[in-house]
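Researcher: For the annotation table, I need structure tokens for Sodium/alanine symporter. Please keep the output clean. Sequence:
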Amino acid sequence: MDAITHGLQALAGFLWGIPLIILLVGGGVYFAVISRLQPYRYFPHAIAILSGRYDNKDDPGDLSHIQALSAALSGTLGMGNIAGVALAIGLGGPGAVFWMWVTAVVGVATKFFTCTLAVMYRGKDSRGDVQGGPMYIIREGLSKRWHWLATLFAAAALVGTLPIVQINQLTQVMREVVFVPAGLANGNEPFLFNLLFGLFAAALVASVIFGGVKRVGYVAVRLVPSMVALYMIMTLLVLAVHVTELPGYLWLIVREAFSPQAVGGGLVGVMTIGVMRGAFSNEAGIGTEVMAHGAAKTEEPVREGLVAMMGPVIDTLIVCTCTALVILVTGVWQDGLVDGVTMTAMAFSQVLPGNVGAYLIAFVVLIFASSTMFTFWYYGAKCLGFLIGAHRQDSYKYYYTLLVLVGAIIPLEAVFAIIDSGYALMAVPTMTVTFLLAGKVTAAARDYFDRLRRGPDDPAAVAPKSTAEP
């Protein structure tokens, strides 16, 4: 297994080279420039959209704006914020967090463009159902000579959307933080525990995904906001104890990001680790979020782009930063642990009394990991349906449930290498089609924002549903 793991890590390292870093970060900068920073200037309007004022139940799609964002966030919030941040700091030092911030800042523009296209170029699957995602954007928006990119994305997404990171880290935190300390499991025999817990998790996931995408949206919109609120309260309690130290650690993050002697291989190494973990956290430019927002009930593509762009802010700039600061101020990052979620659990246990912090983290990880696994099934099924026909995609539920069990028993290093490789291959077609169709987005944005600025008496104006209807 060690040889396989090393091979997978070598593949991920090759794919996540400087060209991919330039594609993701440079692409986000390009989208921000050509949009004249409009996505950043319309955050208040994005919040108004999420309030439901612009929802129309008769619009095409499966999910409301808030459900689409919650479904997308349920795929990003979780292991990227808790285990991914810990892994980034463990491998790349504090400076890796800065490059995660960079992916989020430019990711706002990237998500605006990719998710506007998700609605603008929705296509129909072989059953005639309306679908969204990079593969449909490519098929509907580009000529046939580009259609191989759609196949590449769908095939890569079948790897990138596997539930193995989520179940792997959930199993680890339950074993090491909950069951072993309580004397309910033998720490020297992890395989048996992993197998049994994997079976339990597989049954839990199956109970939701066999209900379809609407049940996923229903569950996500109830789980994600409450878990984000609980997790933020926990982090703020820890940071309040160390409030005087925060400026120093924020400066440490910035300083180490540009240090030639930074942990993780100097400037290039820490940049690569930060961007890789940032992409895993917020998925801007990867394409998974495009599939979730492509299912939104709306006839205004720009409107869904505005909703989607809030993801990197919530996910990386807020939640990941809080996790990073908790890990730094408690000092656990200096203990040499790079096994992800356990480091984060140890950080919280340093401040919160007794084992309360560790148990709360275990609970949050349970919810975050579960919601992500629910959402990733939807992504994988859509990709399989694109490749072999939508009438066959329902069989993916059985394979996906089995893969939950597999992810619980394979090593963490192999898990991240598999997912990182899948994400790298997904990013290439997603960013390529977005570059090629960026002009369509800027034109649609100019039209939408022009209508938004018009008075309520103008019949062409963008207005809330309550005022738009006669």
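Researcher: And a one-line annotation?
Model: Residues 3 and 83 are 24 Å apart (CA to CA).
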